[in-house]
What we know:
Blueprint: H1 8-11, H2 17-34, H3 47-50, H4 63-71, H5 80-93, H6 97-123, H7 126-138, H8 143-147, H9 152-172, H10 181-191, H11 200-209, H12 221-232, H13 235-252, H14 257-261, H15 264-283, H16 300-319, H17 325-338, H18 361-379, H19 384-407, H20 412-422, H21 427-439, H22 443-456, H23 461-473, H24 477-485, H25 496-508, H26 512-522, H27 530-543, H28 546-557, H29 562-569, H30 571-579, H31 583-596, H32 601-613, H33 619-635, H34 641-653, H35 657-674, H36 677-691
Helix pairs in contact: 2-6, 2-7, 4-5, 5-6, 6-7, 6-9, 7-18, 7-19, 9-10, 10-13, 11-17, 15-16, 16-17, 17-18, 18-19, 20-21, 21-22, 22-23, 23-24, 23-25, 24-25, 25-26, 25-27, 26-27, 27-28, 30-31, 31-32, 32-33, 32-34, 33-34, 34-35, 35-36
Amino acid sequence: MEQPMNDSSTRFPRWTGAAFALAVLLFFATAALFWPATDFDFIHLDDTLYVPGNPMVAGGLHWAGVRQAFTTVYEQWWLPLLWLSYMADIAAFGPGPHGHHLANVLLHAANAALLFWVLFRMTGSRWRSAFAAALFAWHPLRVESVAWITERKDVLSGLFFLLALLAYVRQVRPGAPGRTWPVAGLMLLGLMAKSILVVLPFLLLLLDFWPLGRGAGTPGQDGWRRWRHLAAEKIPLFFLSAVFIYLTLVTHGTSGGERATASWWVRLALVAPNVVAYLEKTFWPAGLTILNPTDAPASILVVWLAPAGLAALTFLAWRFRRQQPYVLVGWLWFLVALLPVVRGIRFDEQSAFSDRYTYLPGIGIGLILAWGAGALQERWSRLRLPLAAACGLALAACWARTPAQLAWWRNSLTLFPRAVRLAPNSAAAHVSLGNALFDAARLREAETHLGEATRLHPWNDQYRANWGMVLAQLGRAGEAREALRAVWRDPEPMPKLVHGAYGMASLQLGEYEDAIRHLEQALEPGSGKPGYRVELIRALFESGAEDRARKQVARLEGWPGGEIRAAADLFPYYRQRWQEGAHAYAWTYFRRLAEKEPDNAATLNNVAWLAATAPDAPEEMRQSARAYAQRAVELTAFGNAPALDTLAAAQAACGDFPAAAETSRQALALAERAGDEKRSDKLRNRIGDYEQGIRPLP
């Protein structure tokens, strides 16, 4: 039987060589387990929105960005420490995904070591602390938090959460001054990475019960007086929690259509089944996916049985609180840490059930298993070897299962097909896969999934707009316009999102005046939003309205997106200058852009095409075009027809016409497979030109 410890030398042990070795082992083992993620790509769900598409962080670490991070609510979140961490990654490693993934892996590895140290400091038990920390760090449910750059929120806030626990242990040890401000300061830093740390003061009260044993007092009034004192000393922490709960409600609002329409009774009925689902995935982590549907309501039986089961477990944990206090603490830790993010409290499609929400709650289950196994070994010595073997098998299972789960996160085209397969009724899964296929120029497949997303959620403007864009690129202009107009209902004005998509579709079809009209409608008065403005610049240049285009360029130059983002957005302007014959002037810009974005296939492809088709390009420019095009092809895994088309043009520019013809044949096969008839016709003509030694025209 394990009681709250009263011996301070045991409860607050000194650093030992064995403990240090275990902490180091946990750090490096965790880093090794998740290291493959350092080579992964951005996930085109939120990653591009949070990092390369975030004007605050795209330019790296600079004073203007720091100031903006603390003064801006971005995408309904005020998370300045998160934005600063992304800026630091870009400053240290460049704009690509590698640095962001590396930081996530190292932060999670540090959290594994820190959790071990915190538990060891509180309990004096090395092996139980190591098992709980390893189970937390290596569990497959951690993959989403580590492999997804967007979820830096989990690992970064987790770091400050564990540091706050360590500071609290130092605060309450015998002879300590008992200062609260270090804990409050670390909590504040964690809250500026993710608001989940609002649960910290509640969890500290649980630790006061066990293993710290600070709530022990005389029976009756004295005991309650002691707990009132423990709660009162955490008033600054409760105040921080209240402030950030209010801030989250104000900035984030009630996003998600389902959340806005469902009654509180319906939402509360979903809480218990969702908690049970998290328990199930904790003990049997199969079928994990990034997106889960919300349109499969729990049965009446489950709605009634789930809360009854949870109530029974809670009662048992309370009933045996004196004999096994770790069970009550671990169980309540799991429930309290999960409550702010559980379905019913948080209610929208993408967060109905998410692996990442178990990052802090999972620690509670680890406490139960680690100390429960230890208690059984102490009580029945003959079980020592079987229990040790069971613990070893649990960790081995995590070590085997986590790499398999991690591999799905390599890129969007490995992640989202699995999401669709596991959640076929999730519109978000279909639209995410459709967008990834669209980016890969696999248009027919993209149209299938975007159309399915629109069928599942016909009222969603974004889904229908994306579908319309793909239809336009496939040359199905009538269907595209019909799809986009379907979300517009007179007498209401057409949504700006639809105006933007309609305009971009018209631009793809060469209807420049129509494109200009809709893109201008899509822009807010005085807006510097680069996406639509860049397309507007293209449409104006293509229609011959160069003066109007240059006025839009001047407005775009003031967009606070950092040097790299601004350079990319001004590409249409410099392309026009190139077409006007200012090759030397424009080439300086193109080369700088390619060097600053060496892993951006689209940028490299665009630069290479211009240089490869320039009639008077010098040898250095033509060789650069070939190198840029080859890199773009490699980045797209030799599976993108436009990139291969550009490489063929660059090969022809360097005089290697046989290679150009063969590369074009590879591009043609891909275009035909994707159903892109327009590109297929162009490629057939180009193959004939290359066989005759003719370079493509600009």
